[in-house]
TrEMBL record, chains A, B:
It comes from Mucilaginibacter calamicampi. Catalyzes the conversion of 3-deoxy-D-arabino-heptulosonate 7-phosphate (DAHP) to dehydroquinate (DHQ). Residues 73-184 form the 3-dehydroquinate synthase N-terminal domain. Its EC number is 4.2.3.4. The lineage of its organism: Bacteria, Pseudomonadati, Bacteroidota, Sphingobacteriia, Sphingobacteriales. This is 3-dehydroquinate synthase.
Amino acid sequence: MTETYNDSLIADTMETLQSNNYNIYFNDALAEVARFIEQGKYSRFFVLTDENTGKYCLPLLREKLGDADFDLIEINAGEESKDIDFCIGVWKMLIDFGADRKSLLINLGGGVVSDLGGFAASTFKRGIDFVHVPTTLLSQVDASVGGKTGIDIDSIKNIIGTFTQPKAVFIDYEFLKTLPARQILSGTAEMLKHGLICDAEYWSLLKESDLSQPTGEMVYKSVAIKNKVVLEDPHERNIRKSLNFGHTIGHAVETYSLINDEDSLSHGEAIAIGMICEAYLSYKKTGLSLDELNEITDVLMELYPFYQLRDEMNDELLEIMKKDKKNLSGNINCTLLSKIGQFNIDNICTSDELIESLQYYASLN
Amino acid sequence: MTETYNDSLIADTMETLQSNNYNIYFNDALAEVARFIEQGKYSRFFVLTDENTGKYCLPLLREKLGDADFDLIEINAGEESKDIDFCIGVWKMLIDFGADRKSLLINLGGGVVSDLGGFAASTFKRGIDFVHVPTTLLSQVDASVGGKTGIDIDSIKNIIGTFTQPKAVFIDYEFLKTLPARQILSGTAEMLKHGLICDAEYWSLLKESDLSQPTGEMVYKSVAIKNKVVLEDPHERNIRKSLNFGHTIGHAVETYSLINDEDSLSHGEAIAIGMICEAYLSYKKTGLSLDELNEITDVLMELYPFYQLRDEMNDELLEIMKKDKKNLSGNINCTLLSKIGQFNIDNICTSDELIESLQYYASLN
């Protein structure tokens, strides 16, 4: 018997999800890690952390692993660590530690750790096994599922990467309990996106909930939505593009902020801005009603701090958008909505349209 | 009607081979490149060359491509260009040229160009299409087929890479006609290996032929052998390991020479040494007869220059072998022969055994 509402939901409803040849564990997920290693017949294993997860999350994992012996690879916290130079550092440590093809890499951390660790593992000796133990809400509901790995070059996000599935994902609600509010909200943006692109009911539930404390059930629901989408289209040929809603503009604003701001935007804060802009484009181009645009705008503006977009930034933002992986033939490509709960992919947007949407956001102050 | 023996063989027998979801073209292969691009609906294409193939081979390709517009990426010739730093250079050029996910990379060159280009393409924006146009005998009979891509870090060969199939391979005999003798012999070593591991008749044919001028038929035969092996075991779980015969010691000698010698050994020269040593280990461990050991030794010593191995080199050679991808649990792993035409995988060799085999080679002077 558990005592809190959240925990009882976890215990009652969160069955293991089947993904692309791997399992996503929810119940007592950290204990599952130990079982997985035992059954995996690995020659050895390595844990990749950042300085924060090394401090706050590794002890929880260590407790479950008992006497198991492993080497630790630690990177700095923050998006800067996704640069190719850090990836080379991880490769060199695997070499120095004598990792072989039967080694396992456990990525214990947020999206930077899982994206970078997944890429490093998927290319080390042409590929060793890896699993994700996501420790932030954002990485639990987004990065850890779907088999995308990636690193940055010259601050271009995920410009280099592979599609490689982890061997398992372990989503432990325990980690969320100590996260700062800003990190929780960073993940909430992706959860709201899941509702907006394909589940109006889930969107309604979320907007009426206290999103500073998402329940285990909500996390599970978001992972289930994302898993369904990526299972159907693992290589992003069609419906997986739905997950890019808010991300063409959001990624650009995030990159801009990373380069220019001392205290840069979180992923979720940037994606929230992107979703408002792209909801505006949806209203202009793909039939989203004015009422729904206003509803989306209100919910997101209520949750996320306002970020001052100025006209002088437009050129740089457009330049970043032009380098986006999702583009074809030099055209900037957005996933939009036709209504709440229904996405519309492959919309080419002109510079003028994109700027108008940025100005819409700027006018909300 | 053609006039030379080689050319008529090419015309009569060299049908397109089917590999792992791609074709290997032999007849009029360069013209096939043009047809492939036309049918591929690519947004654009890029050609990767080194300074030599840019000078000697690109004009032949250009002739077939007509007015087609492409951007050129050129690297220095030589194994040093397989370092991660050069790979980053290729990625940055693809970014600067505005390559998108529908772009095609054509790797025009030897094994360095195809290994590096294949890796760069397989990871750029999580993977763009690439094809190989191998211009050396070595790359025609070895690197271009099988879907291995790879780059080096700290002179550790292919320590980073992926298994990614090209979309096509175009093997044009024309390129071989202008190759220097030493480069031809570098490729011949791999052809001899194909005979040794699985076709005694082919080995007999080769040892009685003038290997300074392998025929088109021989090239075709070697590609067909390699293709059969990699089709059956693309990820090197079992029979593909047969192709590693000569390579545990050969790679170590090659790496040693690359680091220490002004005029370093070619791949084939190093692999010939590796095959002699590993034939000795086969005689000691897996039942190769003394007669066959002597036969292999004689053929290879006749073809390749003697390289002075000294006892002082052993520690460094063993150190390099220990970092070999093929090892498991710290043990050095060799593919050996039980007789000519029959391989035997996963033989763990002790340092003493390996040193003894190096001394066997050294004694042949």
